Amino acid sequence: MGRPAAIWTYCRHLGQVVPVVGGQLLTCGPATPSQAGRIRVLVTVAGDDPQGQRATETRQAVGGVSGVEVVDAVTNADRALHVVIQEQTLGKRTIGYTASYVTATPCVDESGGKKTDTEIKGQLGTYTQPKGSDLARDLAGMLDKDLRSAQTP
User: Quick check: helix, strand or coil at residue 22?
Assistant: First the structure.
């Protein structure tokens, strides 16, 4: 009692069943299926990255994960990885980086006669590393584990 009743709605394309309140219709994943054995991932990076170096390293590391293709638009993505980078400094010297991240499944909410982009949140966490390239490698490893766990029933 006290909790709204959830309606189980089938998310087309990815075959995910998700609890949705109020009878929303969610369509998850891209309009066109990816190649068999491939997962298209949208990577967004924000925060302390003025030169874009951490974003480039993260996209390259994620693109190096077996079976992953990095895409540049949410409409083409099966999964998303959103990262916020914070530079760790001592005085004026950079001593490392911290990344907060969340994985998500891109969806479209088609309730009320309007289409609105939304997401089903996945894994949330942080990593801290003294080198940016190591941070990117750690994020790619986490995403690989996240994708593998999503594929096992």
Answer: coil
In 3D, which of 42, 45, 106 has the Cα closest to residue 69?
Answer: 42
Element (H, E) at 135: helix 132-151
| CATH code, residues 30-106+120-151 | 3.30.160.100
Task: Give the ranges where 2-67 is alpha helix by DSSP (H).
Answer: 53-63
Note the pTM of the prediction, 2 decimals. 0.78
Determine contact, residues 38/76, Cβ cutoff 8 Å. no
Tens digit of each residue's pLDDT (9 = 90 or more) over 67-119: 999 999 888 899 999 999 999 999 989 899 999 999 998 888 877 778 888 88
Q: What is the DSSP letter of 113?
A: G
CA neighbor of 98 nearest in space, from 107, 90, 89? 89
Q: Where are the domains of the chain?
A: 30-106+120-151
Cα 130 to Cα 44, 66, 83, 84, 93, distances in angstroms: 21, 26, 17, 16, 12
